[in-house]
Amino acid sequence: MNLPATRPNHDFLIDRESMSAWGLLRLREQLEKGLPLTPRPYQTLAERTGLTEEQVMEAIHRWQHQGLIKRLGLVVRHRTLGYQANAMIVWNVPDDQVAELGQALASVPFITLCYQRPRRLPEWPYNLFCMIHGINRDRVLQQLNSLMDQHQLRDVAHAILFSNKAYLQRGGRYVSND
Amino acid sequence: MRLDAADRQLIDRYQRHLPVCERPYQEMARELGLTEDEVIARLSRLQENQVLSRVGPVFEHSRAGASLLAAVAAPENQMDLVAARINRAPGVNHNYAREHAYNLWFVMTAPDEETLDERLDELEHQLQLPMLRLPMIEGYHIDLGFDIDWEALP
Q1: Do B141 and A82 touch (CB under 8 A)?
Q2: pLDDT in tens, A91-131
Q3: What is the pLDDT of residue A176?
Q4: pLDDT reading at A177 higher than 90
Q5: Is A72 in contact with B46 (Cβ distance < 8 A)?
Q6: B118 with B66, same domain?
Q7: In what side-by-side order are the strands of the sheet with B92-98?
Q8: CB pairs under 8 A, 24+ apart, for B79-84?
Q9: How far is A18 from chain B (nearest CA, A)?
């Protein structure tokens, strides 16, 4: 239904390496907003970007393969589902231990994000960040407690920053302007 | 928000590996024993109800462009105002209130580092608040596609 009545079959002429850079940029822009909920979403994207459906699918495959696209699927708003207690826990870890600890924390099932960021002294002494998308505050504090026991973190300076409100939450807009 | 079994299955099965083929929703429908129309209707409703922010790709931000986590300490009685100003700045995609002296935390993105710095400078100037700028040095785990613990949800 999204197909034009007659579609000249020029696909065999398309040089895959010369997929228009402009078309690919527009595709990136469109994808940042999400996949259309039409029966043929890649065809819809093709119509919006001047690429063919086949080129759209190929570009997405390539980006997945290259790791530019990390995952393709349903992007959940956890807060709506009932994950009401989001806690960012920040630690001040000696620099020579941060990688090891970061990797250890990354494998804890309830830790959803874990990364190293710079300290900004004197006002910000913390260099390791991890996030718990929790259901309620008590549960998060229990999880944190067990974490500190398991990874000998009792004496490591830290702060727990619960989030009580999301003012804005959406996907990254790297190439689009709005 | 309560979701029925089919909604949950959709989420459980397709936070990743959404098919890339001509009729992806038909393919998903086949997998879950639904119809294509039903899958599309459910996804639309889940989006409208803010259960999903979108269907689509999550880009690896370190390859997608420049981004940075920033924070400001807004006066308690001006939080909403400052937050609204932050939301209006170009490239901001997350903005949370957090319980700390630095009480507003946001992520700003841009096509490149230079544009990112300009945007941050501009916003800092507008807000008249010192801004904590915390670029990522190393990511150990960044994946919000974790399994939903339906049993534990209220």
Answers
A1: no
A2: 999 999 999 999 999 989 889 999 999 999 999 999 999 99
A3: 66
A4: no
A5: no
A6: yes
A7: B131-134, B66-72, B104-110, B92-98, A158-169, A85-91, A128-134, A111-116, B138-142
A8: B79/B103, B79/B104, B82/B127, B82/B129, B83/A167, B83/A168, B84/A167
A9: 21
Contact B105, B80 (CB under 8 A): no
Supply the pLDDT for residue A18: 61
Q: Are residues B72 and B128 both part of a single domain?
A: yes
| Terminal-to-terminal C-alpha distance of chain B | 9
Choosing among B30, B132, B141, which should be mutated to test the A contact, i.e. which has the most A CBs within 10 A?
A: B141
How would residue A9 be classed by pLDDT, with cut points 50, 70 and 90? very low
- Sorted by where each begins, the domain ranges of chain A are 11-66, 78-163
Question: How many domains does chain B fold into?
Answer: 2
- Please name the fold of domain A78-163: Alpha-Beta Plaits (3.30.70)
Q: pLDDT tens, A61-90?
A: 999 999 999 999 999 998 899 898 999 999
Region B9-22 average pLDDT: 97
B53 domain residue, yes or no: no
**CB contact residues (below 8 A), chain B span 83-112, against chain A:** 83-84, 86-87, 90-100, 102, 104-107, 109-111
Question: What is the CATH topology of the domain spanning A11-66?
Answer: Arc Repressor Mutant, subunit A (1.10.10)
pLDDT: which is higher, A41 or A20 = A41
Q: For residue B69, give how far its alpha carbon lies from the nearest alpha carbon of chain A (Å).
A: 9
Q: Which residues of B touch A38 (CB under 8 A)?
A: 40
Mean pLDDT over the full length of chain A:
87
